[in-house]
Amino acid sequence: AMEKSYASMFLLLVAISCALAKDVGKKETKETTAKPKLPQTLSRGWGDQLIWTQTYEEALFRSKHSNKPVMIIHHLDDCPHSQALKKVFAEHKDIQKLAEKFILLNLVYETTDKNLSPDGQYVPRIMFIDPSLTVRADITGRYSNRLYAYEPSDVSLLYSNMQKALKLLKTEL
C-alpha cells in the first residue's frame, strides 16, 4: 500500500509542474524570453541581475551594515545621455561584475541630500559613498564643469573609479 501512495504522489507532482510550464509558455513572447525573469523595476535597465536598493536611506543603511560602498546613479529616462550611458554600463561585463561589490542605487529623481549635488543636479551623474557615509568628492569623472558626469566613452574611467572606491575602503577603514 505504501508504494502505491508514493507513485500517485509522484504523478501528482509531475502533473502540477506540467500545468505550470504550459501556463508560462502561453504568456511568453520572444521578447520576454530573452530577458531575465527578475522584476526589473529597481534596476531600471542598469543591470537586471544586480541587487538594487529602493531608496537612498536604505542604501546608506545597507552600506553601513555590510561595509560596502554605495554607488549612486542619478539619471532620467528621457535624457539621451543617461540612456547611452545606461546601455554601455549594462553591457560592460567587468563593470557588472564589480558592481556586485557595491550597494547600488539608481534614481530618476533628486535626493534631498545636498552632498549628492555638490556641483549641480545634472544627469547622468555617478557618485560613491563609503560606509562611514561620506560622499567621495574625490572620485570624479573627466569633466571639470560636471565632476560626476560620465559619457559612454568614459566607461573605462568609470570602471577604474569603481576599483578606486573599493580600494579606498581597504586603506581607510
Describe this structure as you would to a colleague.
The protein is built from 6 helices and 3 strands. The chain has a 3-stranded mixed β-sheet, covered by helices on one side. The protein has 173 residues and is mainly alpha-helical. The longest helix is centred in the first third of the chain and has 26 residues. The protein has a domain of 104 residues: Glutaredoxin, CATH 3.40.30. Helix 5 runs parallel beside helix 6. About 12% of the residues have low confidence.
Secondary structure elements and their pairing?
Elements: H1 2-27, H2 30-34, H3 56-66, E1 70-74, H4 80-91, H5 93-99, E2 103-107, E3 125-129, H6 155-172
Parallel strand pairs: 1-2
Antiparallel strand pairs: 1-3
Give a quick set of tags describing it:
three-stranded mixed β-sheet; mainly alpha; secreted; endoplasmic reticulum; single chain; AGR/TXD; 173 residues; Glutaredoxin; dystroglycan binding
